[in-house]
Amino acid sequence: MLIFRVLVIFAIAFPVFAAPFYSEKYTYYNIYGKSEDELRSEMSNLGPTGFIKGSAHYDASTTWSVSWNYSYSLGSDRLCHISDVRVNLEVTYLYPNWADEGKAAIPLRHKWDAYLVSLANHEHGHAVNGEAAAVAIEKDLVSLGGFSSCELLEEAVDVRAHKIVADYNTKDILYDERTGHGVKQGATFP
Hints:
It contains four helices and three strands; from the N terminus they run αβαββαα. By secondary structure, the protein is an alpha+beta fold. It has one domain. It has a three-stranded mixed β-sheet. Helix 3 (106-143) packs antiparallel against helix 4. It is elongated and about 70 Å long. The termini are far apart.
């Protein structure tokens, strides 16, 4: 019976922590061609652009978004504490879809398939940054102490979570710089 009481006290004293909820979506833009040059031209003209107006087209992109919900209550110490946290991560991949691939020569199709593996590997690196941001937010919010008012707690949550997202957005930029947008990982075609 003593063990049960200790477990109940432990469960009440600490906020609920669960792994972030993760969802991913794959989207595609169609390209057409029967040669390496035609495919390159299509991706260069139709691929996603960077976030800066007028920036170059890329072959693929990965975007991630983290959202968080939490409950709070006044504790016996008369401070406002988070009582549970729910963090969601949504990752969206955008890849080229070679719509008339079946009409191309087999060696070109094999080269394309190898390229897609390297491209997916690079894009997954962006998703890893999103996953790390979601976990960091959840851990940070769960570790928050008590606040003299729930309004101050809400402000702290907002500031801390947005800072974590900004930090991981910077890591995404550095990741692209370090990998040459995937070129150093073999994500180049032709």
